[in-house]
Amino acid sequence: MSLLDEGWRFLRSLSPMIAWRVLHSTPTWLLDWIAERERREYDSPALNIEIFGRRLSNPIGIAAGFDKDGKLLKVAWSMGVGFHVIGSVLPKPHKGVRPKMLVRLPDGSTINRLGLPSKGPEKVLDNIKDRRPKNLPLVMSIASLTPEGYGEVYRKLNDVADWFEVNISCPNVKEHSTFENPEAVREICKYMKPMSKPALLKIPPTTDRDIILQYVDVSRECGFRGIVATNTLKIKYNNIEAGLAGPKLYHIVKKVVSEIRGVMSENFVVVAVGGIDSGEKALEIMELGANLIEILSAVVHKGPSIIRDIKMEMIEFSYKEVF
């Protein structure tokens, strides 16, 4: 068994909150040393895809929340992802909410209540300096407590980002309102202009077609190059507000992706996030119109090998369809 798998087995034996703290307190040099030894190249030309002029080895990334500050980019790279999402990054250091909570559910779902903890863009820049794996596109998920803060963090990270995800709907930040209505998104856009790097709007989960199309309209109006579908689902767990991720979101994500692709061309990038834990689901959501997919709950529950497994299943299912 690999060092990555052994490390995951150890973390899996801990409570999720303790495991998260252990992972993020592990020295960067040790994480990088393990990553360099464990690089998993299970790609095929059949999985290559081009996004925003960049050639990706495969369409799979790990969703925002795994690597808050760019400390784990080599760990993600070692798993064999096609791109890596850092953040969400706020314009200034932010501790998040209390009490923090992470829960694994038996069905493969996760519940999180962290409240956008971030060490700020300067720490991200310091973390990725001289550590960026070659040919790994970096995506910056950005958020803010104010509309103008989005523009601030966008500009600070512009030189190192291949593209951005604009997170408007964290479900467990209580000290400020989120920016889920179109007028709030338009206000954010005013501070992000001009957009010299592509930006995608990350929207909350909904099955309401009218709301989905409103997000499409405001995305086009503001100059966003696509949509990330979707964020976690707002729930209450033990009477505490939190976000639900994993299999329970999959039917919502399929609806959102299908509705967006029904009115937008392939040039409008759609990233599917939520409940994708197999090659079969990955192919299904891409056939509905997703260009890229992101996973996180599947990694938490099944370990780093899930990236390889999904890619191998995608190749296998595609081969069966051809022959």
List the SSEs and their pairings.
Elements: H1 3-12, H2 16-25, H3 28-38, E1 49-51, E2 54-56, E3 60-62, H4 73-79, E4 83-89, E5 101-104, E6 110-113, H5 121-128, E7 138-142, H6 147-157, E8 163-167, H7 182-192, E9 199-203, H8 209-222, E10 226-229, E11 233-237, E12 240-245, H9 250-263, E13 269-273, H10 279-287, E14 292-295, H11 297-302, H12 305-322
Parallel strand pairs: 3-4, 3-14, 4-7, 7-8, 8-9, 9-10, 10-13, 13-14
Antiparallel strand pairs: 1-2, 5-6, 6-12, 11-12
Helix pairs in contact: 3-4, 6-7, 7-8, 8-9, 10-12
Overall description:
This protein has 323 residues and is of the alpha/beta class. It has one domain: Alpha-Beta Barrel (TIM Barrel), CATH 3.20.20.70. Helices cover 40% and strands 20% of the residues. The protein contains twelve helices and 14 strands. The chain has an eight-stranded parallel barrel with strand order 3-4-7-8-9-10-13-14, surrounded by five helices. It has a four-stranded antiparallel sheet with strand order 5-6-12-11. The protein has a two-stranded antiparallel ribbon with strand order 1-2. Helix 7 links the parallel strand 8 and strand 9. Helix 3 packs parallel to helix 4, helix 6 packs across helix 7 and helix 7 runs parallel beside helix 8. The chain is globular, with a radius of gyration of 18 Å. The mean pLDDT is 90.
Keywords:
323 residues; alpha/beta; TIM Barrel; 12 helices; 14 strands; globular
**How much is the average pLDDT?**
90
Shape: globular
The amount of helix comes to 25-40%
- Helix count equals 12
